[in-house]
Amino acid sequence: MKLDRRQFLTGCLATAAAGCVTTNAKSTKAVCDPNLVALISDIHVALPFSEQKYRTGREYPHVNNTIQKFVSEILALRPLPANVIALGDISLAFAEEKEYALCRQFLKPLEDVGVTVTHAMGNHDRVDEFLTAYPEYKGRGGFEKKLVSEVSTPHADFIVLDSHVECAVKERGKYSTCTGYDLGAKQLAWLKERLASAKKPTFVCSHHQAPDLKISKLIARAPTVFGYLHGHHHHWMTNYIMDDYGKNAKKVLQFGLPSFGLDNDVGYGLMRIEEDRAEVTCVARDFYFPLPAEFRPQEGGPGRRPASWEAFRKNWDGRVITFAFDK
Fold this sequence. Notes:
21% helix; globular
């Protein structure tokens, strides 16, 4: 039986007070649903200004509390998602080691109950600093300074690409040097081979959009690819990737995730995967820019939240994005 949107959210966002279902009486691991995936992006862990080696220009007092709040919400899901896929930009700006240590600390409660967290790299990230907190990623994918992961579920696979480009060490601390994106020739060649051999419905994931990486035609022409997932813009987004205008032309739905707490659209997605489709329910928790209302001095005093912000949030909250798996 297919659940409607309200039933899905009611079931998934149940409070932990209902009790943690375990696999057996002695187990401390909650039951994880292999067909449920939490999608997050742009975590942007924020160090206090006084602790920043490379100064970002201001404090971000709301970010870390929001990250931890959302982690608690995911932990309250029953069943839990077996996987969380995070689509890059773990660092606030300049890839400091302390930021990655904090990220692991914030997400560790998920790992402790058996949820697998898989990270992509974003344009604000650096591999060496990331590896200080996540040493198990070293060599993942087999590419120098590129970390590529794969996530397998019963009905679909996820290919998590690395689109970040690292700036020279002497250029760190400048926002203009944190804007690069590229897969590189070796990763691109591997992706072509991987998609050619794919058997199950496949989602290709990266921090950046497919057109930016010049892989739109590759994605659209791959017969098993039915979705492309990305972050970067801090906005809920949908559009289409296409290969051509011929009579056999194919389009693939591209879906963008919001930030996990920094600014603009704020929230995460919950993907339910079935044999013939995957559906992402948008959990739109907030909208603010550049800071939440309580930290934003303005006419009328702090705490005055523009009506447009709530409208932006409501436009997406509970919305379901469907990826149909064509036979």
